[in-house]
Amino acid sequence: MTAVLEARDLTFAYRRGAPPVIDGLTHAFAPGALTTVTGPSGSGKSTLLYVLALMLRPTSGQVRWDDDDASALPDAARARLRAGHAGFVFQDAVLDPARTILDNVREAALFAGMPDDDARERALELCDRFGVGHRVDHRPGEISGGQAQRVALCRALLTRPRVVFGDEPTGNLDGASARIVWDALRAHARAGATVVVATHDERLADESDERVVLS
Ligand SMILES: Nc1ncnc2c1ncn2[C@@H]1O[C@H](COP(=O)(O)OP(=O)(O)OP(=O)(O)O)[C@@H](O)[C@H]1O
Where is the ABC transporter domain (predicted)? Predict the structure, then answer.
């Protein structure tokens, strides 16, 4: 099967002539699988996610999406691919404090061309599913950190993206909240998406379908 997302001899350095942070990585990230990226602090886990998500351009090699060299596309085309097909969950929820929970979740639809009514319905369904349905009219300052992270998860899954990136998505959470976020990401993978999660949590990494270990 064609991989949705593939790193091919991927190298990335933040500055010309600096030692590469990613050095010749080749890996096909299988659809239907949750792949964890692990490795010591500073080994390049976040950097790899940003390169795979087309936010940073490789120094050499390719990031292929659906068998095209997506990393070589112009900025606008890369941004369109990201907005249309990818979701993100970071260690901190990064919600807009001025907008309600519902509007924060619906934001993802704006850039993906999802009709407003569908977005609202799906946002409410996700908020209910992840236990923040009673908070949709509140602002981020009025909910807990664990709830905020579940809101970020709802936002990431809103458009049913084919690729989801998580950068330490459970890093700030207690065990129960971490489990909810992890299980949701795994379920999204089982539904066919390609899910790539950077984590320090070896116990969660042991449960992943595939692993990329950086050194
Ligand atoms: N914007 C940047 N400019 C220059 N160097 C950077 C930049 N961001 C990260 N680095 C360097 O790149 C290397 C990899 O950083 P990265 O954040 O990807 O690692 P990580 O494995 O995610 O680390 P951690 O587990 O601590 O979050 C580190 O040496 C870091 O100092």
Answer: 5-215
